[in-house]
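[Solved] Which block belongs to which protein?

Original post:
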Amino acid sequence: MELSPLSNSPGSTFSSAKFSSKITSYFRPAAKAPQQPDLTPSQGLTRQEQQRQKQHAQQSYDPHLLRGPTLHSHKSNIPPNFSIHPITPATQPSFRRIITLLLPIRYPDSFYAESTANTTSSSLARVALWQPQPQPQSRAPKPHPETPKTTRSLHPVLAIDSEPELPTVVAGIQCRIEPQPISPYFSAPEHQCYIQTLALLSPYRSKGIATALLHSIITVLLTHAEYATVRSLYAHVWEANEEALEWYRKRGFTVEEGVVEGYYQKLTPNTARVVRRGIRVEDHLALRDAKDSERRAT
């Protein structure tokens, strides 16, 4: 598995001198402009003024509306151009290529068919999309200052945006719900969430993406009534993959005693360890805090 813990990004520098000069210029008293009547575009605004008005309206957007629905996942240090979505027929081929490339197990076609059986918010099969940074805008040259005003207003300066790049599938996770082993403490039927696969492309490691995928599954389990009886998550990890075992330990999983013989037929040793993590009270509290933070941000 290609897994890595979160890494902190370096902070940005700050210049107090520059900030002070900006404050001084910003609060410098401006000359009082003569009062003019409010004009709508139909009441005499020039085309250039209409263009500025339109640009101002476009800039006054709500970023939460543009980014679409977000998961109330645990707090993670993830980049802003990264998002998690249920696997769809459009992203399933890329998800399949990642799994085939990185994992030693060859899954049947039925496994990938299950990944798109549910494309709603309750899906337990998800991919991480990486949107490249937006390209810098190129602008047409400004008109010469001596150009008559009437001519300038007829030819406003327009921003020419480059073609946006499509998001890239960089990681994926798929789980299924299984009956929980019978417990002497609970009479009601219980279930467990089995992490069938979790893979991440190497260039995108150390960005918190794998952790965010795991947290997105926990969030789905906590927020959908159909998973109310799920009490734990577990996965199989190759016994020799100490990095993956440590990754799970840092995220609250316990490595169970014993090994599963013959689980990895193409690896030596062919044994697997079982890692397990219960659904805890802390998960509910983290979900509540995440919702409160998002509510305050809006």
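(Second protein starts here: sequence line, then its structure tokens.)
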Amino acid sequence: MFWLARILATQERWEEAAELETQVMETEKEWFGFDNSNLVRSLTHLAKLKFMIQGKWSEAEKLALEAIDMGSRVMGPEDPDNLVGIGLLALMYRCQGRLDEAEELETRVMDAYLSTLGAEHPDTLMSQRNIAAIFRERGRYEESEQLYMQIIETSKRVIGREDPRTLQDMRDLALTYNASGKWEQAEQLGLQALQALRRVLGPEHRDALTCQSNLAVTYFRQGRLEEAEEKNFQVWEISKKLLGPYHPDTLISQSNMISIYKKQGRMEDVKKLQITKTEAKKAGINDVTPNNGISKRWKARLQSWRLKFREN
């Protein structure tokens, strides 16, 4: 059941995976008692699954806190499995806009990894990426840029210039440039990352599509609406084909098309693409704007989830 729950999670079948993980956890309690490392890992994974099911956020937070408390007692506060739980709780807070708490927890995780694993370990770099993203979301763009540049240099040295993770770091730095209004740097680095991701992973890989979507946003914010439309339309069409019409990634692209058409004054096209509450609910989204697009708040949450949960 343990591995089946993990397989279901990789298929984004969150509710089925959570049900199986609950059964695994109950079995572990019977076999090993209530305080053990296996139970800590199961609690953490169940918290992750609950977090991916809309409407289960308070339950997910409670499970994560329970896992961290147990992990600190059983394995120690700096045990790698316990740090995973703390990082997960930081992500929950980040996606809820509780950035002070998210930064505090993620800094705790990063410091622990630095002291136990070193500056070049993948877990340390991942924690630094999370902090760089928090800096961006808090408007602390210079700190975000500096940290991303540090991460990119380390990644190039340790895993190579064209490793997908290095290219994703370049994409994320471009996103910080975008947020701070540095359009030229955002476009230049975004294009460089996109071309490399297409070459390394293929043009229809989700990381390449995310990079292309970010580039479309750069064009949109500069008023280059035809280029924004072209880039985002390609992402939307591929997402529909590969993921289906109600997948969160597909609906984000559809919502972006609505924003572009609205800016162009193409209200008939806007009406054709309106996302109903029923459609949004199928993707686990319960917040649409009056113009029937996904709200900025939910886009931010979904985009934060995508990378984190695909990597764990």
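Accepted answer:
You had them paired correctly. Confirming on the second one: The two ends are 18 Å apart (CA to CA).
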